[in-house]
Amino acid sequence: MVAFGRHIPRGPEFPREKEMTPMKAMFTATLFALVTMAGADEARPNILWIVVEDASPHIGCYGEKTIRTPNLDRLAREGLRFEKAFVTCPVCSPSRSAMVTGMYQTTLGAHNHRSQADTGKGKGTAAFFDSYKLPVKSIPRLFKDAGYWTCNSATGRPNSKFGKTDYNFIWNRADYDDADWKGRAKNQPFFAQVQLRGGKNRMTKHGTDPAKVTLPPYYPDHPVLRKDWAAYLNSWVQTDLEVDAILKRLEAEGLADSTVVFFWTDHGVSHARGKQFLYEEGIRVPLIVRFPKKKNAGAVRGDLVTHIDVAASSLALAGIDIPKHVQGVDLFAKDYKPRDMIFSARDRCDETVEIQRCVRTKRFKYIRNFLPHLPHLQHNRYKDSKAIVQTLRELHADGKLNKLQSRILTTPRPAEELYDLKIDPHETRNLAADPVHAAKLRKLRGALYEWMVSSRDLGLIPEPILEEMGHRYGNKFHVLQHQDNQMLLRDILSVIDATEPDTLAKALKSNSPAVRYWAATLLGVRGDKAHTKELACLTKDASSGVRVAGALALCRLGDASQAKLLADEITNENLLTGMYAIRALELTGRLAKPHAEAIHAARQRPYEFTRRIATRLTGTLSD
Fold it and tell me: What span, in angstroms and rounded, lies between the C-alpha atoms of 341 and 332?
């Protein structure tokens, strides 16, 4: 068990943002008028973010040899390239939520992929909508308040449609003026985001030969995987052309020497160990910055940086004060100090509940898997629809994968992973159990836990419970700031790392539903039948999330009758409870079969991800 001191830094206080008052709006308008009257030499730069989907640094300036990316290579020669850039989450919506706020998605409460929405796939319970609203000012709003024209484009062309957002909160469309910068006032600087499809654009044809690609060693050398990797590299060739068009537009409009261009991807390549996961393939991204008049041209920096630093750096370059809630840092500040380590997190992706955290130094990476009783590659409709994943599952079932290639499909998986990236850049040899590295393991584990506490990481609060807490405190962002919850994360971590069953049994009586949830879950996973009476009490708990955890634990311990409670909770008004309940039924295996009618009916539930699990489980039970 990790012992926590009482003096872990709490981080900055995060005040609630207020709506702009008429007086403040008048001040902003006056500020813009003053800016537009200033001379050209005093004008603030335009800020352009080019954000590409689903791609790792497989371009020429980062060492890729199979394809040519001359325009991105030129951008790197004319700008500053970061060799060790990372995202704080390796999947679209949490990464973009972090990007547009400059905050860790885990602090903001935007960490679960496709969540906190009032429309679309992540649409939750209407009673919780107010708690889904963004509690701080977005980066575009900060630019807009400072007199900038703000826009979000899907292509960077003048007549583009509005670009991808995919934010895990309810946001104000007025944060953006338009899809493009062409409508701004004369001399008005712009803040623009351009969202390119990148690795999602795998139907483009650019002639990459599958026979010539080099697959990472953790994937089998198979025609399906080669063809997919070639298609992915083709998408980079297409992206290179699209970026060229954007840069040529800046030149043609006379904007190149007044615009700071940031180029990066929202996470790594969409593959079995890439997108959604914390290996290098998932979290390491390209990052290139080109300054006006090509300042710092050709420079390469090796410090550890994250994509939320782009937000802070952009504000600073525009002369805008960086608010206290922004957790990224200004990479170009005079007092900038390089980090010793970066942190990244993965949580629920669509219908697949997962909790992983990692800390990475220049040489080592530590990954903590908080659900090691489940496989790395759990079933997920998005992933399972891909031919590469289907092929991996088939090869695994046929015994045709080696131990390394099978690792992502085996259960249980290690709770901890430790890699020496200097000698093992592909993260193939887990050193967590090696006594030689025990001190390094303890140090990085401690650093990760301290970051989780100090940054107020909300990910260990089970989502049905966090949903209710967010409603109670006005927003998930405020939950761990409240005095009542100052010790909550420490308490949860202590329970998770507990080795004695009596410690877990005691935690079943905690005042915190989150602690009770984890205690019940771990007793069930560990097969401890000595505390079934205490677990039975949780099936009548006031918290629906705890009831689900208690019932699933008892099912794991052999009490088939508790599957009925799980079936009943599918229709809970808290839609996250319903999703957790049907997933729990799926995990009970054969015990779900008597409840086929409830599972079949769940295919019509209002929550998208409950429907997905219900459809999958209906098919499994009919086999």
Answer: 18
Residue with tokens 């959604």: 276
- What pTM was estimated for this model as a whole? 0.93
Beta partners for 321? none
- Spatial distance between the Cα atoms of 354 and 591, rounded to a whole number of angstroms: 23
Q: How far lies 82's CA from each of 91, 264, 454, in Å?
A: 21, 10, 27
Angle, to 10 degrees, between the axis of helix 223-252 and the axis of helix 387-397?
160
* Residue 135: both structure tokens together: 């509690």
pLDDT at 21: 44
Is 348 within 8 Å of 608 (Cβ atoms)? Answer: no
Distance CA 575, CA 135 (A): 22
The DSSP line for 501-528 is HHHHHHHTT-S-HHHHHHHHHHHHHTT-
- Spell out the SS3 assignment of 200-259: HCCCCCCCCCHHHCCCCCCCCCCHHHHHHHHHHHHHHHHHHHHHHHHHHHHHHCCCHHHE
SS3 193: strand
- Does residue 79 register a pLDDT over 70? yes
Q: Report the distance separating Cα 316 and Cα 534, nearest Å.
A: 55
Distance CA(535)–CA(513), nearest Å, equals 13
What would the two tokens of residue 311 be? 């937000």
Digit-coded pLDDT (tens) for 101-152: 999 999 999 999 999 999 999 999 999 999 999 999 999 999 999 999 999 9
Other C-beta atoms lying within 10 Å of the C-beta of residue 402: 10
The reported pLDDT for the residue numbered 598 is 98
pLDDT exceeds cutoff 90 at 72: yes
For residue 66 the two structure tokens come to 């199979």
- Report the distance separating Cα 373 and Cα 560, nearest Å: 20
C-alpha–C-alpha distance, residues 511 and 528, integer Å = 22
Residue 81 tokens, joined: 């390239």
What are phi and psi for residue 471, nearest 5 degrees? -65, -40
Q: Which two tokens stand for residue 23?
A: 């007086």
Query: What does the DSSP 8-state code read for residue 530?
Result: G
Angle at 604 between CA 598 and CA 605, to 5 degrees: 80
Query: Nearest 5°: phi and psi at 146?
Result: -90, 5
